[in-house]
Design a protein that fits this description.
It contains 6 helices and 7 strands; from the N terminus they run ααβαβαββββαβα. It is of the alpha/beta class.
């Protein structure tokens, strides 16, 4: 099995001081909802939702899984979905791979399936709607990571909570000289935040 890029992850952890007080507060609000679920169910499930399930929601799902492995947590589960299904954007896939994550392509159809597998993580990643059969139907937190999903999904059936954690879409840089930098920065940004979030729920610090 592959290993997580621990040196890269530790670098992001060292940058958490850059988080604004407002963003820390927002993440702690999400933490409180997660803690409530853990106390109620023994586990918390987060379904990251964005319009196309192609960039930010996929990245958030991946990072939450990676953070849980890094901190040795097994009572947090990550999912993602969209209001429509398209494909895991290849620019985002490349940015994730560039950071050292074991993301491998398993199929070559219009909506390819990727596998993210390391010592503990084993999951299939592909674009899907938020209520896909692979995602939980009840008892989860719907985390809205983009404006469009928030507007188009005013009600997410089965969710205990609907929580807004918005990120700017890196799509604006597509086919420009800044594309690679923007996508890799997005990997850093979401990684810093979700590592910070998961660390607050970890039984011990690493």
């Amino acid at each position: 099995m592959h290993k997580l890029p621990r040196n890269y992850i530790n670098t992001l952890i060292s940058k958490q001081e850059s988080l604004s007080p407002q963003r820390r507060e927002r993440l702690m609000q999400l933490r409180a909802l997660m803690q409530d679920q853990i106390e109620k169910y023994g586990v918390t499930k987060l379904n990251f939702i964005c319009t196309h399930n192609s960039r930010r929601s996929q990245l958030s799902e991946m990072w939450l899984r990676a953070a849980c492995e890094f901190y040795g947590i097994n009572n947090i589960q990550a999912y993602s979905g969209g209001t429509v299904n398209t494909a895991f954007n290849e620019r985002m896939v490349r940015a994730i791979q560039q950071k050292g994550f074991p993301l491998e392509k398993l199929s070559t159809n219009a909506n390819p399936i990727y596998t993210l597998s390391s010592q503990l993580i084993s999951s299939l990643m592909f674009s899907k709607v938020y209520n896909d059969t692979n995602n939980p139907k009840q008892g989860f937190i719907a985390v809205m990571v983009c404006d469009n999903a928030e507007q188009n999904c005013p009600l997410v059936h089965g969710a205990d909570h609907r929580f807004s954690l918005k990120y700017v879409d890196p799509k604006f840089s597509d086919d420009t000289n800044e594309e690679r930098k923007v996508y890799e920065s997005k990997v850093d940004e979401i990684g810093i935040e979700l590592l910070y979030l998961v660390a607050t729920l970890a039984p011990v610090n690493i």
